[in-house]
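Example record

One chain of 305 residues, shown exactly as stored in the release files.
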Amino acid sequence: MGMEKNAVGSIRRITWIGIAGNVLIAVLKFALGAIGHSQALVADAVHSLSDLVTDFAILIGVKFWSPPPDDSHPYGHGRIEGMVTVLIGFAVAIVALGIGFSGFVTIVRGDYQPPALIAVVGAVASILVKEVLYRWTVHVGRKARSSALLANAWHHRSDALSSIPVAVAVAVAAWRPEWAVVDALGAVVVGGFILYVAWKILAPALVELSDGSAPLHVRREIETLALEVPGVRGVHRVRTRHLGPLIHVDLHAVVDGAVSLTAAHDVAEALRQNVKEKIPTVAHVLVHVDPGPRQSSSEASTGQE
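Predicted C-alpha cells for this chain:
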C-alpha cells in the first residue's frame, strides 16, 4: 500500500518549513560568525546549510516512495525511502568530517583569534529554532511513519545540540582571549557530535536495505499473536523484513491435519488479520500452513467444552 495523501502533504509542508528555518539560521550564523570572528559558529552555519540538502532529498524522494505498489514494484516503493535516509546520513557525516578537520587544522596551525561575544547570539538562536523544528518534524514523522523524515528531524536536533558547545566555546574564548583556541576546539567537538548523529541515522537504514529483520521483540509479538488464533497449534520460521517503515512477514503455522483446505485457509486468514490489526506497521503477512497431527475426537470434544 502507498502512503496516504494527507501524510505526503504533511511531509512536504514540514520540510518546506524546515528549509525556511535552515536558510534563516544559516545566514544569521554566517553573519554573526564572520562579524564575531568565530570559526565554531561559521562551522555550525555550514551544518545548517547541509540540512538544505537533506530537506530537498525529502521533497524529491517522497514523490517516489509514496505511490502504492505497481507491476514494477509489487511490494511497494519503501526501499526508496531507505535510500533517501542513507543519503541524509552520508550528507551529515561529510559535513561532520569537514567541520572537525577545519577545526583541527586551525589548532595545529595556531592561527586562531578570539571571537566577539556577539557570536553567542547566533548559537543561542540556532538552539531555540532548531529544537522547535526537531520536535515539530519528529511529530509529523512518527505520524506519517516516515524513516526519512525522522532522520531529517534528527538532523535538526544535531544542529540544535551542536550549537551548545559552540555557544560555550565562543563565550569562553570571548571572555578570556588567551583561550581563543577553545573556539577551534568547539568546532572539533561539533564535528564529532554530528558524526555520531550520522551513524544513528545510517545504522537502521543500512539494516533495512540489507534485508535485516525486525527487532526481536517485534518477532516475538508476531509469534504470540499468531498463537492466539483458534486453530493454530504451533508457529515456526517467523521471518521479517522492512520495506520503508513497514514490515513484511512470512511464517509457518501448524494446524490440525484433519481439517479441510477451506478451514485451514480460514485459520491462516484469521492469523493474518490478527497480526496486521495488532501491529499497524505490518503491511503484509504470508502464512504457510503446515499440517500437524490429526486431532482425535476426544481432544476435539474436550476443546469444545
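Notes: The chain is about 70% helix and 10% strand.
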